[in-house]
Design a protein that fits this description.
CATH architecture: 3-Layer(aba) Sandwich
Shape: globular
Order of helices and strands: EHEHEHEHEEH
Oligomer: single chain
CATH topology: Rossmann fold
Number of domains: 1
CATH class: Alpha Beta
Length: 168
């Protein structure tokens, strides 16, 4: 099974107006653009998730909605509270049991938790830190969830890397 993990893209920094708390911060125009660029690169890599799951926070949901739009029909967007800031891998795996069976899974969350989830998929110890830049995506292939065997890191892409190779 292919697991894609993504950190949400760039969101507005300040509260004010209709944005009353951190959970409501939306993506910036640049954040939408970097998400679309990443989604188009994933499409060229033949990413076809059968399910897209997001943190409930606005910036993560908006990131996931763009991924879903570009990568095609994976059903409706699912929300998992375990992907919210402070969530743990065990909470994520518990949340996933509530959803229908899936082959390839795309999840959008927050740093540092999404990095810890990536490490946990590979059964890496707590000393392993996988830092995610905004809108970065990692693919880890696993046999099952929660993993009973270390997952295999297939690739890790950041928007900066896509810019360096001229991906649009």
């Amino acid at each position: 099974m292919k697991i894609y993990l993504m950190r949400h893209a760039t969101a507005v920094e300040r509260l004010g107006g209709a944005i009353l708390n951190d959970s409501q911060r939306p993506l910036t125009d640049d954040g939408r653009a970097e998400t679309r660029m990443m989604a188009n690169a994933l499409k060229r890599l033949n990413a076809k998730p059968s399910m897209v799951v997001s943190s409930p926070l606005t910036r993560a949901r908006q990131t996931a909605e763009i991924i879903l739009e570009v990568l095609g029909p994976a059903g409706e967007l699912k929300i998992a509270d375990g992907l919210a800031p402070g969530g743990t891998s065990s909470e994520v795996f518990k949340n996933l049991k509530k959803f229908p069976p899936f082959e390839d899974l795309f999840m959008v969350g927050h740093e540092p938790d999404i990095g810890r989830l990536a490490a946990d998929l590979m059964l890496a110890g707590p000393e392993v830190i996988i830092p995610f830049k905004k809108a970065a995506v990692i693919r880890v292939d696993v046999q099952d969830l929660p993993p009973s065997w270390p997952g295999t890191l297939k690739w890790f892409l950041s928007p900066k890397a896509l810019n360096l190779i001229g991906a649009k």
